[in-house]
Amino acid sequence: MYNVYIKHKQLSWLPWTLFLKRAIYMEERYLKPIRQQTTQDIVYKQVLDAILNGAFTRDEVFTEVQLAESLNTSRTPVRGALQTLVKDGLLVSIPRKGLSIRNITQEEQDEIFLLRSSIELEVTKKLTSMTISKENLMLLNNLIRQQEEAMNNDDNIHFIDLDQEFHLMLTRLANYKLMEQVLINLHNLTQLMGLKAVSRKGRMKEVLVEHRRIIQSIEEQNTESASKFILDHLNNSKNALNFEDR
Predict the structure, then answer these.
(1) Which residues form the HTH gntR-type domain (predicted)?
(2) pTM value?
(3) How far apart are CA 176 and CA 144, in angstroms?
(4) Cα–Cα distance between 29 and 33 in angstroms, integer?
(5) pLDDT digits (tens, 9 = 90+) for 189-218
(6) Which fold has domain 106-244?
(7) How far from 16 is each of 8, 23, 109, CA to CA, in Å?
C-alpha cells in the first residue's frame, strides 16, 4: 500500500489530482495486501493434509524433531504449526513422548451430532418458511455437482470439504450467523469424523441423494419433509461412523 501526498496547494486544482485521490480511495477501500505464506503456514497445511489423509495412524506418536527432519525444515515453524493443530483439537500432546491424533470419544461424537441436529433442524425450518432465490438454489446444486465429481475422482477430502460447505451454506442462507460460527468451530472435528464415514463403501452416493432431497424439500417449502431429511441425513452419517468403529 502506498500513500501519495500533495505538498503544494497550487496543484490541487489539477483534474488529475481528483482522479488520483479517487484511485487511492478505491485502493484503500477495496484492495487488501496479499498475505505471504510463512514456513509455519506451509508446515501446518502439510501436516493437516497428512492427518486428514490418514497418513498417521490413531495410535501413532510422533515428535517435533521427526517432523522437522521429514519436512527438511527447522523446528521453530514445526513447533508453531503443531501448537496450532493442538489448539484446533486435531492433535493431543503426550508428556515426554510427543503428539498423536486426537481420538474423538463416543460421548464427544454423540454431543457433536446432537448439537448439529439441533442447529440444522432449525435451519431447515427457517429455510422452508422463506422463498429461496433461483440463484441460491443453483449454488446449492452446484455444490452437489462438485461433490459428485470429487466422488468420481475418489477425492474424499474434497468431498468432505464440499459437504461442510453445503451445510454452512444452508445456515448462511437462513441468516443464522451465530449458528454458522458454531458449525465452523466444529469443522475440524466433523471433518475427521466425515472422512471415517465416507470411507464406508457407497456412503458418498448416499450423501448425494440425501443432499438432493434436502434441497428439493426446501425448494418446495415442505417443512415436514425437510426436517425429516436433514435428521435422517445426520443419523445416517452417525450410523456410518459407528459401522466403521466396529
Answers:
(1) 37-104
(2) 0.73
(3) 22
(4) 12
(5) 877 777 777 777 889 999 999 999 999 999
(6) Four Helix Bundle (Hemerythrin (Met), subunit A) (1.20.120)
(7) 14, 10, 62
